[in-house]
Amino acid sequence: GIVTGGAKGIGLAICKRFIEEGAKVVIVDIDQSACAKAVEILGSENAMAILADVSSYNSVEEAVRRTIECFGKIEILVNNAGICPLQPFEEISELDWDKVLNINLKGAFLFCKAVLPYMKNQNYGRIINISSVAGKMGGLFVGAHYAASKAGLIALTMCIARQYARFGITANVICPATTLTPMTAEWPAKFLEELQKQIPLGRLAYPEDVAAAAAFLASDDAAFITGEVLDVNGGFLMD
Ligand code: NAD
User: Fold this and answer.
1) Which residue's C-alpha comes closest to atom 44 of ligand 1?
2) Which of 82, 143, 195, 226 has a CA that sits 20 to 30 A from residue 165's CA?
3) At how many degrees (to 10) do helices 207-218 and 9-20 cross?
4) CA–CA gap between residue 212 and residue 147 (Å, rounded)
5) What is the pTM of this model?
């Protein structure tokens, strides 16, 4: 399977878990040194890294071509790459907006577009998109561009789930709340404390919590689940 943004954080935890379940993974990420480290951790017999920006059409097409060359098929696609600027609404410029939407939402669209023809031919595929609780309720500290991109990802997933169900392809979304990763390690401690206080289960998420949900959605146990939005949020939002 392909895991975008798989070099760190949630993506890396998903790679680890998928490998434990017997899969081979292709990491698509822009962070070269993190890619090298990830392949070392995961083992080069299990993981390969492709340096590419998910928001570039040509890079995405090329990454998918190389994956097919190496493995002959793509059974699972996890659109996980994302950025999350903590900008108040009035500070978001047009450029900021475009950048976040291009990576978080267009990136997932491009990967789905590139991978779906292969999944359709196989009559099998699992697409898992990593959205966020912010995509459902705006989030507490994250930018409006981020929340909007994550809401868009939910609708994109539902469209794919509807249109590709008859080809044996499922598409589902995971909405984590704040997760302890390199992304949130840069947030002010007071934000993290504030967020944690609002979580009934009393802690922030670990990347492994999200990886477990992804492994379930990729497994045969989830064969009849599509278009689903799965919360991994410790009870932060119950809807
Ligand atoms: P992270 O920053 O720790 O890791 C993200 C990875 O994506 C990095 O390796 C980065 O290099 C890669 N990446 C960024 N831009 C890219 C691009 N243009 N092309 C290819 N790769 C790119 O983040 P994380 O916390 O692991 O988050 C992973 C996903 O989960 C994101 O989509 C994020 O929005 C979502 N999410 C995170 C949290 C959280 O609290 N950490 C909560 C909800 C949702």
Assistant:
1) 132
2) 82
3) 50
4) 23
5) 0.98
